[in-house]
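As agreed, record passed on underneath.
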Amino acid sequence: MKKLAIPITLLALFGGVWLGVVAQDAPKPAAAAAAPAAAASAPEPQVCFESREGATQVTQREIKPGLPNVRCSPTTGAALWYGDPLDGTVPMGATANLDKASEANAFIKPRAEQMKFLATCGTACHNGTYPKGYPKDNKPVPIPTMVAMMPELATFQHGRGAIWCLDCHHATKRDKFFDHAGNLIGFDQPQALCGKCHGDKLRDWRDGIHGKRTGDFTSTGKKRWYTCTECHNPHNVQDGVRNRGFVQIKPETPPQLPRGMKDARHEKLHPIPH
């Protein structure tokens, strides 16, 4: 019996190791079934837009547990509330006609990476050279590829026929704008371009009369400035049948009144008698 004890012990140890390896390699039906179920039940990330549909898109995520970066309207899909108004922004930097205080506290959200045709226009098709069939005047022949990518260009009316594409877009660097002096302007700084013709609107935007801002509303607080093309589509400035004005933004439904309040007449009264 003593002679058999050692072989039996070794066989038992080998069998235990072998069974452990087989158990690890064997499929785990419960876990395998749970993984697809968990993936299927995971909600799709919610994406909403700011100012106008088709412009700045924001994907909802948590800044910290329980605090989302944005909340979207279930009615229109627009951004309604921000956990951090400066999330995803960068300093605006020097811009014409902005004083130093505004420059230091002004932030914008880069949008170039969201423009799906920017790389195509600036690199694939217009890579620093004049393309074949380059127009000799401001009445270019429609190109099927361009019409397919941007249908609104078929009825382009910015300036009511007084301007055309290359009054704003650089002739050989289509991923850039240019000012009156020929200096290049990035797509994230459209105010420097729009101010070429709309100086009064640039001044009002600078002073906070025109446009939209979020953030700290104290005089020295940091604010996110919404740039021109976040609210306005420069390719569709004479809206459809009306043939006037920009495309209007669908309004949100009014908020609920606090419990016990019958109406909102108090909003018609100025808080300061005058």
Q: What stands out?
A: The chain has eight helices and twelve strands.
